[in-house]
Amino acid sequence: MLRQTSLGTLGLGVGFVLTIVGFYAYSTGNATLNLAGFFYGIPVLLGGLALKAAELKPVPFSKPTSKEVMALRQQQATVTQNQIRKDVTRYRYGQDAHLDSSLSSLGLSPTDEERPVLKGLEEKEVDGAYALVLEFESPLIPFEVWQQKREKIKGFFGPGIQVELSQPAENCVDVALISTPQV
């Protein structure tokens, strides 16, 4: 629940209420409440503004996850798949983009302007295995470059991962991280 709550919005709301209470207490001559309202309200309001300015919103699921796929996730998902899913589906602060350091390490983000942007996420079954599909918008990095980096992506997100790349539309790249269940 807290993962889906914007701390910036929460800080703005609480700070605003405390500041208004401080102003009201000042106008009615209530010195104690006035001091508490200003002393806590304004810093919390400013902190909320700072968090809101540095906020990176969660990546949405492009399709709802079925119960069968959730059960498959429980059985087969790797630690890396779970970590990626949890990280990109929560609010982040102080980052330019989701998975920015991973893309840089893979050589898929030479500059901030060229960095692919994670637009969606999907969980599905591929040949009986759990797959986490990362849906990138990649207008400046061609699909051929992604294909050249396939083995590097596999090594980066592995072990226990197979990588499949697809291009569902122009300037879009889907990276399917498929678990390889141990038999």
Automatic annotation (TrEMBL):
The keyword ATP-binding does not apply. Pfam families: DUF2854. The chain crosses the membrane at residues 7-26, 32-51. Keywords: Membrane, Transmembrane, Transmembrane helix. InterPro entries: DUF2854. The keyword Membrane applies. This is DUF2854 domain-containing protein.
